[in-house]
Amino acid sequence: INVGGNRKVPMARLRALAEGLGYGTPRTYVNSGNLVLEATASSAKVEAALEAAIEAEFGFEVPVAVRTVQELVKVRDACPYPDEAEERGNLVHAGFAKGKLERPAAAAAEEHGGSEERVAFVGRGRRAALWVDYAGGVARSKFTPAVLDRAAGGSVTMRNARTLAKLIELANG
Question: Which helix (H) or strand (E) holds 156?
Fold first, then answer.
């Protein structure tokens, strides 16, 4: 769930919302919109249901990008910077788009990066991801959320390699 700025969604309320929608064992990880749940509905239906419920509960729209644990594992395993992700997992991020992500998004985003930053595209279509190595630090980066959203043609939510690993662990546990 792409939260931040003036769009605050407390994780306890998010878990309760997911449970109220009938999703099994909702769990959150850190206070940044990471939600793991069990559902039989399609990813698109879960996205739509969560977006509608969040807007009804909190009064603002929040883009939701749902991925299965298998999809998260594929993205993690396709990381083009595995050594860097192991060494400094908080600076290597996977970006997930709400909609379809195309390969030119990586090139468009890369134009804004600094000399220490790298961006790579992995996967295909709606389940593709952008990997960004923020070697110089996230705070000083020109790969801002707005740049990534423009490059992707829609909302992109970033998760660092450590968070991605924890979400996979939660989903499998």
Answer: strand 156-160
